[in-house]
């Protein structure tokens, strides 16, 4: 099991390095350090000396990948890419290009993101799993066809529609909750209710469709036919046999949502002015703050890889043939 786990880590580390390299390369294709300096200093009447001072103060005065002014290993280590990457992999995120402490910002903003993401995940599971079981039990019925049609329609509609429609209906017309904003403590509940409802409605269609597919696949297996042949009721077959055996695919969908749980929703947080990590990332992209963008992409990649690793561990724990087979 240990060798299998180490092998999996060996697969994921190059992916993390590759994502970091791609982020760095793409950002500096669009922006040069001089462009970044002029944007932060004000694009009018910026002297070359001021640009040089800003780059030196923020560590952008070194070459990107190779430093010909150095000798030996320092040609690689004394570069923008190596210096920034070594800080990221040691979880020393440093300061943003605007001077803010990135680690402190993340610790403050992760809680509003979790306050939205966790209720959304729990509510989707509580609604989607029973609905998935219901349509599997009533396959081919009018309920199954009607619910499937609603799910496909919900999947076809952009999440922006749910956001705008929710703000217009519940905030503008009915005035049941604020249209946007945030507060501390228990006062945050009235600001979080509408974003949570909107995200649940926007994501419910895809999750119900996925659960329906998983449950229907399980109901076609041999052990289900054997259980039915023994005279077990359909409800007993579903809850005692199908649901436990469908747990692994359901766990997979939960685990891969880890980045969304911790990093927040870019669109929802921006539209509802929630000070979470999603809006933090959007603001950094708009301000061309490379230090924040690179940190958030790194964290997102790391959390996604951890989610995949946890998924593999769950499958290996449930099916020893996976780890013994070395796959």
Account of the 3D structure:
- By secondary structure, the chain is mainly alpha-helical.
- It folds into two domains: 2-89, no CATH class; 110-286, MetI-like fold.
- It has helices spanning 2-30, 33-41, 48-58, 74-77, 80-89, 102-137, 142-156, 159-173, 188-219, 222-229, 234-245, 247-255, 258-263, 266-271, 277-286, 290-318, 320-325.
- α8 crosses α9.
Keywords:
about 325 residues, mainly alpha, MetI-like fold, 17 helices
Task: Offer a concise description of the structure.
The protein is an all-alpha fold. The chain has 17 helices and no strands. It folds into 2 domains: 88 residues, no CATH class; 177 residues, MetI-like fold (Orthogonal Bundle).
Topology, pairings included?
Blueprint: H1 2-30, H2 33-41, H3 48-58, H4 74-77, H5 80-89, H6 102-137, H7 142-156, H8 159-173, H9 188-219, H10 222-229, H11 234-245, H12 247-255, H13 258-263, H14 266-271, H15 277-286, H16 290-318, H17 320-325
Helix pairs in contact: 1-16, 2-3, 6-9, 7-9, 8-9, 10-11, 12-16, 15-16
């Amino acid at each position: 099991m240990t060798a299998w786990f180490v092998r999996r880590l060996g697969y994921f580390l190059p992916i993390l390095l590759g994502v970091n390299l791609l982020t760095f390369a793409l950002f500096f294709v669009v922006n040069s350090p001089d462009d970044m300096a002029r944007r932060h200093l004000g694009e009018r009447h910026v002297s070359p000396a001021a640009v040089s001072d800003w780059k030196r103060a923020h560590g952008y005065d070194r070459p990107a990948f190779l430093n010909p002014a150095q000798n030996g290993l320092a040609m690689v280590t004394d570069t923008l890419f190596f210096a920034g990457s070594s800080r990221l992999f040691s979880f020393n995120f440093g300061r943003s290009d605007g001077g803010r402490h990135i680690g402190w910002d993340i610790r403050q903003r992760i809680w509003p993101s979790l306050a939205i993401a966790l209720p959304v995940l729990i509510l989707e599971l509580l609604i989607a799993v029973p609905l998935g079981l219901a349509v599997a039990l009533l396959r081919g019925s009018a309920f199954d066809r009607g619910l499937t049609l609603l799910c496909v329609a919900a999947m076809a509609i952009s999440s922006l529609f749910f956001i705008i429609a929710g703000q217009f209906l519940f905030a503008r017309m009915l005035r049941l909750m604020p249209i946007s904003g945030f507060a501390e403590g228990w006062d945050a509940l009235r600001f979080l209710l509408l974003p949570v409802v909107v995200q649940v409605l926007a994501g419910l269609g895809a999750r119900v469709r996925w659960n329906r597919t998983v449950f229907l696949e399980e109901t076609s297996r041999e052990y289900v036919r054997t259980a039915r042949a023994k005279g077990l009721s359909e409800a007993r077959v579903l809850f005692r046999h199908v649901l436990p055996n469908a747990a692994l695919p359901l766990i997979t969908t939960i685990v891969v949502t880890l980045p969304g749980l911790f990093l927040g929703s870019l669109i929802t947080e921006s539209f509802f002015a929630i000070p979470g990590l999603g809006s933090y990332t959007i603001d950094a992209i708009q301000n061309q703050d490379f230090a924040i963008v690179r940190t958030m992409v790194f964290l997102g990649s790391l959390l996604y890889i951890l989610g995949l690793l946890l998924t593999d561990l769950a499958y290996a724990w449930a099916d020893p043939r996976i780890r013994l087979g070395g796959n």
